[in-house]
């Protein structure tokens, strides 16, 4: 519900945000993939492939798909030449119910993952960082479940640096996407999702947060002129044999 006047209601924080994100993704799960393809003109699939490719791990590596949703990144990882072994985790039971990849999945909060230390060789996450209620804690937990030398590939939205592209991006993402989402899925959810970009820290802060959590070699590169961004990093430490 919007406030009177032009200012929208403040974005939720903490436990309220977690509850809202869970219920929102439960609601949009059945048509989530369709809306993604329409609102990105299918480019999201190319960006997801680049995210998986960026791990550059040996064949058979065990990879966690964090906030796996319906399983797009897991499908990419299982279908590449090296065929990673995938496990998925997501906060939303609705999204997991729509996940037909056949990989093991678990319902879990990103800050309390039910895996022992150093379980995974790699981790991917697609368009979910801004939905985590505590991004710092999520990065720390990500580092905990990765072995030393493990790799992460994190895909998120971004904003183009070109003034022309930025204007078009704002019109599309803030005006057109809520309309498309309202027609194909849930109107309120797709009004909220463009606003949720405000949760994302600026690039220097993201890099610092990952470094502080135990990662090195943090790379943050724009995709398609800044429509999305790919964040890569390596877990600090000597790889275990």
Compile the SSE list and pairings.
Layout: H1 14-28, H2 32-40, H3 43-53, E1 62-66, H4 72-79, E2 85-90, H5 93-97, E3 105-107, E4 120-126, H6 135-145, E5 146-157, H7 163-184, H8 187-195, H9 203-213, E6 215-223, E7 228-235
Parallel strand pairs: 1-2, 1-4, 2-3, 4-5
Antiparallel strand pairs: 5-7, 6-7
Helix pairs in contact: 2-7, 3-4, 6-9, 7-8
Give a summary of the structure in a few sentences.
This protein is of the alpha/beta class and 241 residues long.
Helical fraction equals: 40-55%
Any idea what the radius of gyration is?
Answer: 17 Å
Low-confidence stretches: 1-6
Strand content: 15-25%
Largest sheet: 7 strands, mixed
* CATH C-level label: Alpha Beta
**Helix segment tally:** 9
What are the secondary-structure elements, in order, as H or E? HHHEHEHEEHEHHHEE
What is the average per-residue confidence, as pLDDT, rounded to a whole number?
89
The computed structural class is alpha/beta
Measured between the Cα atoms of the first and last residue, the distance is 54 Å
Give the strand line-up of the largest sheet. Answer: 3-2-1-4-5-7-6
CATH superfamily: Vaccinia Virus protein VP39
CATH architecture grouping: 3-Layer(aba) Sandwich
DSSP strand tally: 7
Give the overall shape.
globular
Domains, number: 1
What fold name stands as the CATH topology? Rossmann fold
Describe it.
There is one protein chain. The protein has helices at 14-28, 32-40, 43-53, 72-79, 93-97, 135-145, 163-184, 187-195, 203-213; strands spanning 62-66, 85-90, 105-107, 120-126, 146-157, 215-223, 228-235. It is of the alpha/beta class and 241 residues long. Strands 3-2-1-4-5-7-6 form a seven-stranded mixed sheet, sandwiched between helices. Strand 2 (85-90), helix 5 (93-97) and strand 3 (105-107) form a beta-alpha-beta unit. Helix 2 (32-40) runs antiparallel to helix 7 and helix 7 (163-184) packs antiparallel against helix 8. The longest helix is centred in the last third of the chain and has 22 residues, at 163-184. It is globular. The relative contact order is 0.16.
